[in-house]
Amino acid sequence: MNNNKISSRSRLLLLLAGVLLIIALFVPLWSIYLDAPQYPEGLSLQIWPHQIAGDVDIINGLNHYIGMKTLHTEDFIEFTILPYIIGFFALLFILTATLARKKLLYFVFTAFLLFGIIAMVDFWKWEYDYGHNLDPNAAIKVPGMAYQPPLIGFKQLLNFGAYSIPDIGGWLFISAGFLVLIAVAIEAKWFNRFKRKNATVVAMLSTMLVLSSCSAKGPSAVNLHKDACEYCKMTISDAHFMAQLQTKKGRVYNFDDINCMLSYIKAGDNSTFANFYIANYEKSPEFTDATKAFYITHASFKSPMGGNTVAFTTESAANEFAKKNNSGVKTWEQVSGKNIVTESHH
Asked: Does the predicted model carry a pTM greater than 0.70?
């Protein structure tokens, strides 16, 4: 066998990577989602290879008030050249699969990796420019405030939560690079070395990944006397009454009272919420699953916003406490109302 030729498996991976890039030309590459109480369904900004789409006009209107420049496809040279660059790499992958040369494979992978890095740096610079170069005559000015969205992940911008994540095309782009990386690993015989020397490491890493994926779920800690209630904006100061909800995208909202959490849920699109937590009255500041807790409402509790409701993890503990306070025990359905979606993901 010619040592300069790549295997049939690597050629197949390159062909598949080329097809993925061709598909990526016709779908959005990246999305930025904006979430705020006044927009319960959220706003989206989709970045395609050739244009900006989504709720552009609404976002431009909001940006005007804080002094950000408006967004227009024609202002970015990237949308003119990006389709050609993606198409070029797609053809280059297919050509490399056809010629089946190892050196060409290594060159193509290096070039594609550099392009990905340059593209992300360019995206970050674009976000930085729009988030920092503000009109000094804007209607709303917050000293020291910048509005740069996150490169990837979540960031709070005033009352808006901004999520920046790859869209379909972005995942196709990443997958194409991963397929070429596998081809490089096959031809460089990385997997053979890895099997011989690192079987134990693989087992340990796999175990750690499983454990970390399990431990990552659950409620987030609340910084008492620092974090503010998402609904009433008061500082959360009493751990006995605090509540928390999480969206399907992983966004966390904290509340100082169950009434605030329920009011926030009912005011928005509650189908976007995944997990609901409430303080365990017996072990505060520990949280418990709000949908499985048992509740007692009594005027003597005097919670921050008048909910006067505490939660227990077991019905027996709630009943015992209720008898002492001459009160009754309620379930989550009775406290929240049956119209609230409780699609728990933990």
From this structure: no
